[in-house]
Amino acid sequence: MNTIIEQSFSVPFKYPVCFSEDIFSIENKLFVDLLAKDRHAKVLFVVDKGVNEAHPHLIAQLNAYAEAHSDSFSIPCDPIVVVGGEASKNDESIYKKVVEATHLYGIDRHSYIAVIGGGAVIDMVGFAAAISHRGIRLIRIPTTVLSQNDSAVGVKNSVNLFGKKNYLGTFTPPYAVLNDFNFLKTLDDRDWRSGISEAIKVALIKDLSFFTWIEAHSAALAKREMKPMQELIIRCAQMHLDHISGKDPFEFGSSRPLDFGHWAAHKLEHLTDFRVRHGEAVAIGIALDSTYSHLKGWISEADLLRIIAVFKTLGFQVFAPELGGESLIKGLQEFQEHLGGQLTIMLLKALGKGEEVHEMDHELIYQSVEMLKSFNQTENLVTN
Amino acid sequence: MNTIIEQSFSVPFKYPVCFSEDIFSIENKLFVDLLAKDRHAKVLFVVDKGVNEAHPHLIAQLNAYAEAHSDSFSIPCDPIVVVGGEASKNDESIYKKVVEATHLYGIDRHSYIAVIGGGAVIDMVGFAAAISHRGIRLIRIPTTVLSQNDSAVGVKNSVNLFGKKNYLGTFTPPYAVLNDFNFLKTLDDRDWRSGISEAIKVALIKDLSFFTWIEAHSAALAKREMKPMQELIIRCAQMHLDHISGKDPFEFGSSRPLDFGHWAAHKLEHLTDFRVRHGEAVAIGIALDSTYSHLKGWISEADLLRIIAVFKTLGFQVFAPELGGESLIKGLQEFQEHLGGQLTIMLLKALGKGEEVHEMDHELIYQSVEMLKSFNQTENLVTN
């Protein structure tokens, strides 16, 4: 005598991911054209402190842009400048400051928050936007290679809690993503390089032709040539967008995010107390799991050396002293807890073809670490 | 030379809304059957203090149920008991306690939070569940008429902030909703009655036959007969579910929630410092906007009197002294701010047929209030 009603519906999401240059020069209409035309728009700007320092005229430029386009939108207060990097996600007072601004300046569900910064700041502001009024429209303007080709084009946001990364967050697609390549010019060499490892990641598990392209352009990328970097970012972003829309955007099921090389990377960031940056750790994590794939008999030595050579040409380290010892192995267990359920690790069946396994041989991991150490010391790798 | 990638995808949501009795008696398998079978489930229970007091054996029963079904699921800690009513949404330490429990007891995205309580507690726990690990599965077990037929079957959660109701929240469909009619037996008369006004609301704007049914059963409902109450709840819940799945579940566009009678209700709750409960305020708000619809020439006096008579038979007041004066009119403006954009008010074109307007005549509102005052004083209304 139970009654059961099955509720079911689908919610359509749609957002543009744009690539441009100098988006706040007055003649660039990309930003204003994104805003809905049904009423005069109100836009709250939040700016990463690091970006503001590297671009000292940015806020004046934003004000001038708003002034010039005052028929379309207005800014209710000066842009809010927040600390950059992981620190912005560790202290709850920072996201709460953004929430409070939505209250003070009447930013409602039909208004906008535009965030300019690196991936961490975008994660944090995205969380504040997602929970205020059950979701204020968010325009993401990522400023690093890593956020432009990877984190900022997706559907997640987050802050840290209990010493755990991304403990609080939601799946909330942005209103729009605006990649401005101009911001890349002021990145330091480490940040320029770091984001490339996520492109190598998707290439290795999904698309041999993209890997071959990166390999061919690795010297140019290392020299900070802008044209191949733009192509790399657009191609990598497209692959991420396809992955998200392809199957399970909000990760309800057991489908995995694109996390090749990430179990060791997460652990390494912690073991080095974040001396090694995320993209650098991912490079080492990829190198490790590629070496493991080779030792397992899945990819040839020649293929492994191609991977290592690309990283070295780009200027990455493929080893860190903290990889030695048993701490690394604990990372496997933590990765399992992080995802919930069964351990799932992506390895390489071939260049451009990932395959999942559900256990890893600890002895083979130790051997892989030893190989990485010697790769790191070798000046010239012989590749085919 | 801008490049634009249009990302688009749909996310399917599905959840059962179940109606049963005595769901934690050991032989009732509804709850265990809901849990996914791919692994042993972990369920964190949160219980409304008021429910716990009215059902002093509830927690022992939950423990016995978990013990009897330990092959399917386990509870990692004693149920967390939280203060009930709006207070649970006003103090951030309460939802944070739930978030902290997910951390302490390893409640991940494949675990569950089951919340037993009134609408406010379900809103608050829903918010904690939605933001922890980007969404822990939530099983809602509403215990009041109002939450069983209305708030808990939908897709929203929230807490209050800055003195504003529901300032923080998300649109996050539950994993399942389990309505146990047994909980209704211990409601006080005011709470039993309150929830009926939301059913009258949907009936008046959408379904004449449902209104006629409520009218025919109003005396039985007033006498707390369980059978018509169960029918009312199921029918009202079904209408809400249809409304949500019908068009714009996450309210991206300008489609309105089912908020007939709610602009005055929200204001009245505040003006009376919550002496008047939500459902009671909604009854008065509906009576007000129905009277306004009559004075505007949209519904006949006979139809208006039928509406007023139903409320009076059920034991509702259709007037409160705080309706007088100019404060009420301010509620119109606040309602507009709350929804964002243009003012939109639902009125009645006929019984069972709502129609939206975008302005209200203040003089006609004052006249409606005067009429309500006299209706409230009249013992016997002459209805057809």
Automatic annotation (TrEMBL), chains A, B:
The 3-dehydroquinate synthase N-terminal domain extends over 80-193
Keyword set includes Lyase: yes
Residues spanning the signal sequence: none
Q: Which domain of life is it from?
A: Bacteria
InterPro entries under this entry?
Answer: Dehydroquinate_synthase, DHQ_synth_fam, DHQS/DOIS_N, DHQS_C
Domain 3-dehydroquinate synthase C-terminal, by residue range, is 195-329
Pfam families named among the record's database cross-references: DHQ_synthase, DHQS_C
Q: Does the keyword Metal-binding apply?
A: yes
Obligatory cofactor(s): Co(2+); NAD(+)
In its UniProt record, a GO molecular function of this protein is: 3-dehydroquinate synthase activity
Q: Which GO terms describe its biological process?
A: amino acid biosynthetic process; aromatic amino acid family biosynthetic process
The alphabetized UniProt keywords are: Amino-acid biosynthesis, Aromatic amino acid biosynthesis, Cobalt, Lyase, Metal-binding, NAD
Question: What is the protein's given name?
Answer: 3-dehydroquinate synthase
Naturally occurring in which organism (per UniProt):
Algoriphagus chordae
